[in-house]
Amino acid sequence: MAASRSPIGVFDSGVGGLTVLGALRRRLPDEELVYLGDTARVPYGTRSAEVVSRYAERAARFLARFDPKLVVVACNTVSAVALPAVERSVAAPVLGVVEPGATAAAGRAGGHVGVIGTPGTIRSGAYQAALARRRPGLRVTARACPLFVPLAEEGWTDGELPLLVARRYLAELSGIDTLVLGCTHYPLLAGVIAEAVGPSVALVDSAEATAEAAAALLLRQGIAAPAGGAGTERLYVTDLAESFEPLAARFLGRRVGAAELVDL
Amino acid sequence: MAASRSPIGVFDSGVGGLTVLGALRRRLPDEELVYLGDTARVPYGTRSAEVVSRYAERAARFLARFDPKLVVVACNTVSAVALPAVERSVAAPVLGVVEPGATAAAGRAGGHVGVIGTPGTIRSGAYQAALARRRPGLRVTARACPLFVPLAEEGWTDGELPLLVARRYLAELSGIDTLVLGCTHYPLLAGVIAEAVGPSVALVDSAEATAEAAAALLLRQGIAAPAGGAGTERLYVTDLAESFEPLAARFLGRRVGAAELVDL
Q1: pTM of the model
Q2: B191 in the same domain as B65
């Protein structure tokens, strides 16, 4: 099979990576996408780098069975602390969400960038380091926001309650001009996050930046799917396939097919 | 070693079970307690019964090494869906938190009981079934409250924000006279929960009810520690031992020793 016709593997700890799948679909309508959500071990964001690496390796080995031309790590925690484990486990190039997000933020920022994400992503310092490599001297303030994930999963994304949560977390980031949404769940809360930080702060969505980077990589390597390609999606989860579908619809903003249950 | 001098094993998916450890300590000051928090796999509350049973079995086998005289499953999800897996894995009697909580609520209730817990506990129907066995015809309304756990872990347990969350969840439980706190994290939010439901609703804390049941079981079997017993605690976790200590202090309301990292 020519590499151009191989699928893109997409992997997340759960349902959040579907915002990346959605961005990939919009940017690359002809590509075949295989998504794995490791719902039996979600969330990764509160775990150590060692444990996350072990889980990521197993997930990558599962995706390797599909002979993917590219693996997108649609999980900020894995991108931050366990990309080497993924790279060891697949032959394809591997793209995380941190580097594209940091590139977009560094290109747009004035002098002070905020980064929000899970405790694991923030503790890793990955965004902070990636921003410093691109713009030494750029001021970066980071904050973990653990309530944002359950808010997004409850669908409580508008109104007083999520706004109150956003204000509480983001009060510590005063003075920033750019804010990186360093967790795949956060685009669902972009409205209240924007309201909490005010109109002078630009939001950078790592999902969109990663889809751009994926498109550029396929083009550069001459392995993009031909126009009129399959454009199909296959979804796999490691637990609770039945409750995945309604959540997936919320994250993608459209209905999806049934997810298949797999044991890594 | 005489059984009376054996430790009590206590097991939870993470840090929440420490409210049960605290209740056991207050009720049974002479007992030696061994606590295991499976922080590498927390939370259990969003997982399927099959996956929870697999995790619970491994945890129980770890506690079995201490030759416990009693194993307390200080996790509502495991108590609801996986007690048989624990009973298969240890020789000691096993006590979950659901049955003692349901007994206390059924004894106190007027005609309508509310139950709140994680999605896994509520979906299991374990409290609903345990209440129906004790008081057929009792009306029971149950509601999952997934934001309560991160609120408790952030320490955001007072003020407008947790009260708003509590009001949003508990609005659906109007008309209840008794409310079971069916998750070990929830005692930390008892203040705002009480405010949201009003003074006419009695709160039942499963942790306190379980400590009572444990004391009764030890007495009945003649294996309580003699007065002046060790009264010590050993804490084990499967991930992030260093961040466990400050959280543990919040849950226990006092300082604790360092937790030891173990791989199940």
Answers
A1: 0.84
A2: no
